[in-house]
UniProtKB/TrEMBL annotation:
The keyword Nuclease does not apply. It comes from the Bacteria. It comes from Rhizobium ruizarguesonis. Gene3D superfamilies: Zn-dependent exopeptidases (3.40.630.40). InterPro entries: HutG_amidohyd, N-FG_amidohydro. Pfam families: FGase. GO terms for molecular function: N-formylglutamate deformylase activity. The gene is hutG. This is N-formylglutamate deformylase. The lineage of its organism: Bacteria, Pseudomonadati, Pseudomonadota, Alphaproteobacteria, Hyphomicrobiales. It is an enzyme of class 3 (hydrolase).
Amino acid sequence: MVTEKVSSPCEIRQGTSPVILGFPHTGTEVPAEIADRLNDNGRMLADTDWHIHRLYDGLLDDVTVVRATFHRYVIDANRDPAGVSLYPGQNTTGLVPETDFDGKAIWKDGQAPDEADVAARLRDFHAPYHGALAAEIERVRAIHGVAILYDCHSIRSHIPFLFEGKLPDFNIGTDMGKTCDSAIEQATLTVVEAAEGYDSVLNGRFKGGWTTRHYGRPDTGVHAIQMELAQSTHLQTEAAPFAYDGAKAERLRVHLKNILVRIEQIAPGLKR
């Protein structure tokens, strides 16, 4: 499933809404010299946030989008560039993962990235993505006096290496309310709690990744919230070929649109 190229580290679509959609994990592009070092398991790219940019497409008029095109096995755009763990003491994957979400090796023997590789990938992929995201946040804040980053994610609903049992369908992360105004958190929670047939949690296993925690500074007019969706909500199966389920997706998109519209409506009242 590897796409052996990287056309550009990220794609940007500029809009005038106060909301920005971030997609750090939907990319499947891997430079050939990196792809050659992945083992058969790694080349499956199983930990992709499959089809999430498609799922959100067209839900909010004139929204800004910043999407990483490279895969998280190249470097994880949602990790601290210093390599500090998001969840100390818990199983997780790092800045440049050595294993997949099941704890299985993704690199050929002796081919795991070294410090020089990590430094190069920070420069060539991680930094350009976050440079673009930071620029769009500043541009949107200049228009509205406020910017709301909604960071879009998905993950398999059952991953024993990372968490026990089944993951809720909607996983909202605000780092315990630190990364956004409470009105944004509450609006999102209200929608997902009313979504019939779905379950949800606020600041459960996923409390917001590095992107949400890094940019979410409500006192500066920049708010950030992460939505981690269980892939069972929009995929035919949570295994290869990870096909998009149009019927499931359309049911889900109703609620996602409701969230985005509501937080956009809140934005004018958040100006400092």
